[in-house]
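U., I forgot to send this yesterday:
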Amino acid sequence: MSLEEDFAMPKFSAFLFASLFAAGLCVLLLVLMVASPPILAQSLPNAPDAPGSIAGTVTAEGGAPLAGIDVDIYQLLPYGGWSPVRAYVTDAQGAYEALALAAGMYRVGFSDPANQYGPSFYAGALTVGGATSIAVAGVDVTGIDAVLQPAGAVTGLYSDARPLLSTFAYIAALVREADEWRPTTQRLILETGSYSLTGLAPGVYRICAYDWYQDPLPHPSVCYDDIVSSPDYAQAVTVTGAVTTTGIDLNAGVEGDGAAIGGLVRGASNAPLANIDVWFESWSQPPTGFISPTTTSSSGRYEVRGLAPGSYTLRFVDAGTGIHQTQYYSGVTSSPAATIVRVERFEERLDVDVTLALGGILSGTVRVLGERPSYAMIYAEPRESIDPAIPLYAIADYQSGAYRFLGLPPARYRLMVNASLNGHMFSGVYNGPAADEDGYVTVAPGAILEGLDVNLGTGVYDGEISGAVTGDGVPLSGIAVSAYSFEKNLVVTVPTDAQGRYRIGGLQSGIYTVGFSDPAGVYATQHYSGALNLARAQFLFLEFVGQIANINASLARAGSLSGRVILDDGVPGTFHTIQLYYVRPHSDGFELIDLERVVNTDSSGAFVVQGLLPAMYRVCAETRPYISYQGGCYGGPLLVHEPGMSQDVPVRVGEETTDIDIYLVTMLPEHSYLPAVARQ
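Result:
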């Protein structure tokens, strides 16, 4: 049978062949199974369905199905904690089913959006942290049911006696599950006054208020009734279904069952110090929350009551005269070395006394060449290693440029300054009369050194480039001399004077190049030294307070070229950019050098390029950025921006080569002529 005949086999013949093949394969498999050892002949267990699922029903007490109950599926995250991954709503029979669950540990929560029934987590927990985990591994887990009870509520008044924290707070109902207190329901309230926690499942709770800017747990500000130590000591509040429990008032800022820390602050002469700020830092795990700083009285005493039991370090800052060093209790300048004060419930530690050592005060102003900087930072670098309790830097005042260091530990300091003006950065050090020969200022105990002024920028703008421009052996006046940065950005352009000389001053240190062009177009544009473009120009390196002279140029007589850019239907090619390439012959052919000149067409599509060295050029055009692109070159293929495929354009001394028209069209117009090509 030929190949063509084989493919032309009737359909029923192919089907018969396949059927006979399958039957033979079954017989072969049966023979192999009979001949195999008994262990291979045993049947394998059924493979589990994958992925798995969780299903159940939600009812009220008595068994009535609850429709419209929110069911949330939580999954254990790799780094710990439970995150909601699915949300469902029970149907008319109270049923739900969560399909397509990957292998993992899950927990399920049930809540009534109408708050008629209290929330619950499987099996009977009030928080996700106390719920029972459900393992899903390619199986359908059923019977994850819930029985919801009518919800109750708690209401009361919230007040805050602390002056800095008079409004925002979380109010939460806590239960203890898995050996820790967890919120079941919490509300953010924006002002003091009445509050209400609704939709609570029947149970026994602790009602607490927390500072709004902290995580709600585990930093209680106050729990019912006036408990600031821990929910462990709070009064239990029993919530009954369909009943509102009233009068659960929360009064933040009270002493309650808290502790007290206080003492006396003295100076070096043992006299009491007023207006010393006392800051508390909690070292408890977890921290006990934010504590408002307090200030010593006229008698030097301070006292903070209502502290949650825990461990604290105390920092003392001279907010009055500023002459005393910032210190930690007791007598050290760093937090890790501080003595920890530990207090229990109702404990009073009123003997935490300190004596502050004298420091020094340094002040002055920062200027940049006499101008107020937009920003300035002053760093006090100590000669010897010290461990101060304050940062050794100061930010100058924006309005005045003034700076001030308070409570500096006695030592020798170098004042280092970084400032900004007009977007430029300036650096320097104080080297005035108060500095020694090494540039350090000595701060003695109790020293007040004023007038440490720093004026930056001296020498920064003293860079200068100068030279002369000639043509045909005579000085050329009015030649535009431009300085460019290393990034090829124009810095400034100045004209030569009657003697052909120029001077570009006020330059910062850096790397520059210089270009020379004749606005009249009589002489050819060039760059230092003799380069056709910026990329090939010689770099000039200006060091600090540097001047470079004799950057001269001798310009050659120039020619020019002109033409138009023409689009379809003779429309002028406005907003087009012209590129010119110098044709440089060499032994292997020629090299095209981009002149990097910026020339644009006018409203009629016309362009003129002056100041060109007598030579051959290639001329191309393209649309400006952000406009639908078109490009092409003179004498080249239509709409192909490739100077290597275009026509040479001659430029002669003192002449203008005209009619260099570039057609950016799909088809040339009927009456148009390509440039003539000389016979070889």
